[in-house]
Amino acid sequence: MLFGKEHVDRYRETDGAEGHDWQGTVTLLLTTTGRRTGRPRTTPLIYQREGDAYLVVASKGGADEPPLWYLNLQQDPEVQVQVKGDRFAARARTATPEEKPGFWKKMAAVWPQYDEYQAKTDREIPVVVLEPV
After folding, report:
1. Alpha-carbon distance 42 to 40, whole Å?
2. CATH top-level class for 4-132?
3. Mean pLDDT score across all residues of the chain
4. Helices (H), 1-133
5. pLDDT at residue 66 tops 80
6. Can you give the pLDDT at residue 114?
7. How far apart are the first and last CA of the chain?
8. Residue 19 and residue 8: Cα distance in Å, rounded?
9. pLDDT tens figures, 78-130
10. Phi, psi of 107 (to 5 degrees)
């Protein structure tokens, strides 16, 4: 099973032939700009399509603090996304309170652990919308 840097490297090298399908789900690569370093940071994330956009969840396994990639995109929402061999620029935003319930249900349908993660923390875990630009 691919994880972390190895997941990112194999995904890139194979245009997602290795790494896109992961534990019964599908993943994309999200590249944010480090808010302290200014360097690109790439994270593999489970996703679902929503029209032309892509949904991802900033869960960090239910930790009380958000994942670093989420903090990065709050400072700079201009990101790079790779889905299989397709690479594109996108703008990231947190789902609105009106959007979130439906988006959460869609994401938890493919990764039920999201509900467990939310139960572990008082932090409201955001759903992030990646809109191609």
Report:
1. 7
2. mainly beta
3. 96
4. 4-13, 68-75, 100-110, 113-120
5. yes
6. 98
7. 32
8. 8
9. 999 999 999 999 999 999 999 999 999 999 999 999 999 999 999 999 999 99
10. -70, -40
Distances (CA, A) of 27 to 2, 7, 48, 83: 11, 10, 9, 7
Here the tokens at position 71 are 């903090």
Tallying the residues shown for the chain, one arrives at 133
Contact between 75 and 101 under an 8 Å Cβ cutoff? The reply is: no
Tokens 């992961």, residue located: 22
The residues pairing with 48 across neighbouring beta strands, listed in sequence order, are 55
Q: Which residues contact 81 (CB under 8 A, 6 or more apart)?
A: 28, 29, 30, 31, 54, 87, 88, 89, 90, 130, 132
Average pLDDT of the residues in 37-41 = 96
**Domain residue spans of the chain:** 4-132
Strand, coil or helix: what is 39?
Answer: coil
CA–CA dist 29, 106 (Å, integer): 19
Q: Band of the pLDDT at 4, cuts 50, 70, 90? A: confident
